[in-house]
User: Fold this.
Amino acid sequence: MRMNMKPETTGSGLTSQRVRDRLVERLRANGIVDERVLNAIRTVPRHLFVDEVLASRAYEDTALPIGHGQTISQPWVVARMTEALLETSPKKVLEIGTGSGYQAAVLAALGLEVHTVERIGELLRVARKRLRQLGMTVRTKHDDGRIGWPENAPFDAILVTAGAPALVDALKAQLASGGTLIAPVGPANAQALVRIRQREDGSFDEQVLAPVVFVPLLSGIVD
Ligand code: SAH
Assistant:
């Protein structure tokens, strides 16, 4: 882990290390096995990625509101997506839907080169500030993530953290050879976390990982 935590980020009471360790044990009990992922979740202070009034709930395994009708994903979902992403040992990754910045921070804590795109300017500004305060290097862009980040493509892995009825072709096209794309796909009430991998011949292998609930992938950008 390359993070250098300042003392005030280590938390106390309901955000203490003991409370974080309990979340990690819960994730382990619910099938998360990759120690690198569990360690990143233990290290990244999730309570700093939500509003202060919600900080005491930050180590519950639940999604929480972050304003603008959006949510910070449930820790189990972050862990499962990250675990699936690490299977192909990526270096350069793209996240669509920065939101609070928490998933990006978990990826950065794993030593990955992280690129993330968010359509809501205000959320992105807050996320950037948090990541900077934690000393984490993450490249961010205010844009409609459905077009990906063509200037920086290809990516070894792409993580979409908002749900769409179908996989977005522009994102598939920005995968490096052998790359992995992980995204919630399906109607709002029946989404599945899907992983696709590009085969040597350019075709795709698709696998369903888990049922999930994500906020929708929307078009356009807002301030
Ligand atoms: N990964 C986030 C979860 C955020 S929820 C976290 O760790 O906190 C999903 C986010 O996707 C929201 O912030 C939403 O504004 C954003 N989003 C939805 N559609 C988008 C799009 N087309 N491009 C970029 N971001 C999008």
